[in-house]
Fold this sequence. Notes:
By secondary structure, the chain is of the alpha+beta class. It is 30% helix and 36% strand. The protein has one domain (7-96). The chain has helices at residues 46-57, 80-96, and strands at residues 7-15, 20-27, 30-35, 63-68, 73-78. The chain has a three-stranded antiparallel beta sheet with strand order 1-2-3, with no helix packed on it. It has a two-stranded antiparallel ribbon with strand order 4-5. The longest helix has 17 residues, at 80-96.
Amino acid sequence: MKDEILVNDIADYVDIENNEIRVSFTIDGKAYKYELAVDNDWLDMGIFKIFSELLEEYGCWKRFYYYDLGQGVLVGAYENEQWKALNKLPVMLQKVM
Length: 97
């Protein structure tokens, strides 16, 4: 299993007024193109699912996870066991405080 994938030829197109957002790139010479959802200036969180699926497709251990902070988001790429350990931290901090 690999730790990462190499993404090349990254391009995007954003036209919020016309509800159009696209991203394209290549991995190992294979071209990918995705249409993303438009919600004012908010990020389409589906992009993390797309990249997690690509990590799996290319034999990587890691997946993208995010934690919604309301007006922000914390994003990381972790192995499943790492995420489980990190996910316990806020609960532990709440008990201490």
